[in-house]
Amino acid sequence: MVLQRDKPIAIWGWADPDERISVRLGESTGSTLTGGDGRWEVILPGRAAGGPFVLTVVGSKAIELKDVMFGEVWVASGQSNMTYALSGATGGEEAIAKAANPQIRFFTVPKLISLTPQSDTLRANWELCTSDTVKDFSAVGYFFAAKLYKMLGVPIGIILSAWPGSTGEEWTDPDSLRTIPVLRPIFQRWDALPQVEKTSATEATEFALEFDDFELLQDHVSNPPTILSNFDDGRSRNATGGAWSYDWLSAPHTVFELVAPGRGGAGYSARVRGKIDGANFSSLDADYRQDQSAMDLSEYSGIRFWVRGNGAFQFQSIQPTITDWDNYSAGIMHATHEWTPVTIWFRDLKQAGWGVKMPFTHNALSGIRLTIMTPAGDVALPPSGMYEGMIAPLEEYGIRGVIWYQGEGNTWRAYQYRTLLPALIEGWRKGWGEGDFPFLIVQLPNQGHSPELADSIWAELREAQLMTVRAVPNTGLAVSIDVGEPGNLHPPRKAEIGERLALWALGTTYGHESVYSGPLYKSSRVEGDQIRIQFEHVGSGLVADGDTLEGFSIAGADKKFHRAKAWIDGGDVLVSSEDVRSPLAVRYAWADSPDCNLYNLDGFPASPFRTDDWLGATFSNR
Fold first, then answer.
1. What is the mean pLDDT of residues 489-500?
2. Is 512 a member of any domain?
3. What is the C-alpha separation between 416 and 617, in angstroms, rounded?
């Protein structure tokens, strides 16, 4: 593991009540007596970077932890773009090949939803950074750690506590959500849900699903189906050469097995059973070929199979061209106690829409997936559930700061996010009790297709992130407006994001004399028929990445924005338009995926901004 250097070290655990516990870490020692609940804690003095050390804990039995380092520890949190694996990132293959570095270490917090604060994470381990372990780790987290290590030369520990698709309120402490008026509707929506949905989200419920007799179908009813899998020989192979497999990593209390008899009273069927809640899912996968390569299924129009039991599932068709999990899928289905046929026509499958839109490759399909869900289906997750289950258990572990990549799940409520994100930060800082530790935010990249010169919910969310950095002490902003893709919610350019976060940390937390940010809007004033924009973090000077500045618009009292001419004047930008003789407001990069090109000479892009405070598209959304 990596422990935070230069801070007191809390070592804690559980034992029998009134048990004497002794702790040694290097030459530092301490002892205590457990309380009536069996919990104990020893605080050891801080230590400079270095190691390795051995941590020994002795009570009625002894525990020895080796290879303990002191260095810099950061928590990486957010949603899917924070969990986005290095293996899928631009430059990821080259980074993986040279990633081996035992001085960089990762800890991934297992997913856990809870309605009460947890004292421990689910079982997990620290991992050394190797070419094998890093490929599935957060790309942003890795690039951040690699840059810090290069510049600081001390051990770096990254604690990844993130969840794809999560919203900010799921990471926020419940006191803030229930007491701050703007945030109260969040819990009110949860409280109004049917009890069965709330129970399924947080409490494991039993399920058992059996599948049998998978067939490939042709359109013409006179053509007989082709058997894909029927398990009658007691094996999980299929007729096209591939086989079935089961992924239960996020659902450890489940099992896949072949059971007899199958449908019709003979042979076998494939059964998945166990306990699952809203935090878990598993998948029963069938590869068409043994090597997982694609197969031409153009002569077939669909798949039919039979299912029975108690639980919900979703059918997905897997094709190699889709790498962001937005597979072509059918809706969520629920099993009954009787064997029931399910017919899936390829023409009816759809992508969810949050990934890259890809054509259905009928001539190149690699398999099918049955994603297992709770009996209630895809349930809503509770506000504060991830905070209680995945952040609260960390709050005695010393850290330097947090990197945060989230917001996509809150774009429709961007105005509320102005309050939500500062509340989240305050709640985390209160929980850790370490003061105003650094909290560095990834501003959302370009994504989507809002109409030109119109309101943009993505722009409003970016504004909320910028406003948080303005209002909350010791926060930072890694602008990423130049590394996204309009049609891709999971853009692969993660190296720039991780390194920009690291550069902000180096220039502030670690006191390096360097430019660490792009231009941030400071102020504006009207000068006749033009508006002068002033910036912070000009660095070595402003520059247009191209012949002329793009992305600026201007409006008068009618609040109608027009394309504007903009030019650099020293450290400022002047903006005007022949269509607006009496200007009042300027906006820059105010769109889902804007064409914008203002940088400083140090290579950092300017943050999107606006000078007005006119109500936007998300003002009334709570």
1. 96
2. no
3. 12
The residue from 485, 507, 529 where one domain ends is 507
Report residue 467 as tokens: 């406003």
Say if CB 421 and CB 460 are below 8 A apart. no
pTM of this prediction?
Answer: 0.94
Give the C-alpha separation, 70 to 51, whole Å.
Answer: 6
Instruction: Tell me the pLDDT band of 278, cut-offs 50, 70 and 90.
Output: confident
Closest of 522, 519, 514, 521 to residue 537, by C-alpha: 519
Q: Is 419 helix (H, G, I), strand (E, B) or coil?
A: helix
Which CATH number does the domain housing residue 214 bear? 2.60.120
Counting the structural domains of the chain, the total is 3
Residue 200 has a pLDDT of 85
pLDDT over 90 at 281, yes or no: no
What single-letter DSSP state applies at residue 72?
E
Q: Identify whether 530 is part of a domain.
A: yes
pLDDT (mean) for 388-402: 97
Residues 12 and 146 grouped into a single domain: yes
Q: What is the mean pLDDT of residues 394-400?
A: 97
Neighbours of 271 (CB within 10 A): 20
Nearest-angstrom CA–CA distance, 236 and 241: 11
- What DSSP letter does each residue of 112-142 carry, written as one string? ---SS--SSPSS--EEEE-TTTGGGSBHHHH
d(CA 495, CA 552): 27
* pLDDT value of position 599: 98
Range of the domain at 532: 520-610
Structural tokens at position 432: 């850790």
Q: Are residues 447 and 326 part of one domain?
A: no
Encode pLDDT of 468-485 as tens digits.
Answer: 999 999 999 999 999 999
Q: What is the CATH number of the domain that holds 30?
A: 3.40.50.1110
Distance CA 449, CA 545 (A): 22
Q: How confident is the model at residue 65 (pLDDT cuts 50, 70, 90)?
A: very high
Dist. CA 180–CA 347, nearest whole Å: 47
For the record, the structure tokens of 244 come out as 């079935």
Q: Tell me, yes or no, whether 93 and 9 share the same domain.
A: yes
Pairing of strands 401-405, 439-442: parallel
Per DSSP, the chain holds a count of helices (H) and strands (E) of 10, 34
pLDDT digits (tens, 9 = 90+) for 181-239: 999 999 999 999 998 888 888 888 899 999 999 999 998 667 899 999 999 999 999 99
Residue 409 sits in the same domain as residue 301: no
Q: How far is CA 574 from CA 135, 343, 549, in A?
A: 46, 62, 10
CA distance 51 to 154: 10
Q: What is the pLDDT of residue 375?
A: 81
Strands 475-478, 439-442: pairing kind: parallel
Give the C-alpha separation, 317 to 280, whole Å. Answer: 21
User: Closest Cα to residue 441, out of 412, 471, 397, 413?
Assistant: 471
**Residue 572: inside a domain, yes or no?**
yes
